[in-house]
Amino acid sequence: MLTGKGPTNDMFNNGLNLHNVAKMAIPDGIMDISDPLLFQHDEEEEKTTKDFQFRKQEKDEKVKQCLLSVFRVGIACSMELPRERIDISSVSEDGPKPDTVTWNTMICGYCSLQMLSEALQLYEELQHGRTKPNAITYTILINA
């Protein structure tokens, strides 16, 4: 979903798999393995906004931070040996509580997939939890 490649993609051979590609890409190569669709920008906005390039860079950086968080969790949950994997339920229930970056990552993911009702549901959960939304949260939702 985030790379645009499924686990059976032809590029994955000779011991190379999605887990290894993601692990090797953290943190500097994350943009190289991410689906370019995640970084599409509104062409109309480009024509009408004087500071489009600045806003594009700002938005791309936010998406990159979201992707880093998601990829890190994915890598931790997909270790080769089961005993090395974290349990995904511990990420949200037993483990450390998600911080604002984690919430923003999940909201950003839903928005990028046009799953706006799910994004708004997460936003409501965020508002009622220990962690509070920040300017990035609002920017993600407004841009969606």
UniProtKB/TrEMBL annotation:
Keywords from the named record: Repeat
Domain of life: Eukaryota
One GO CC term on file: membrane
PPR repeat locations: 99-133
Pfam families xrefs: PPR_2
Cited PROSITE patterns: PPR
Protein name: Uncharacterized protein
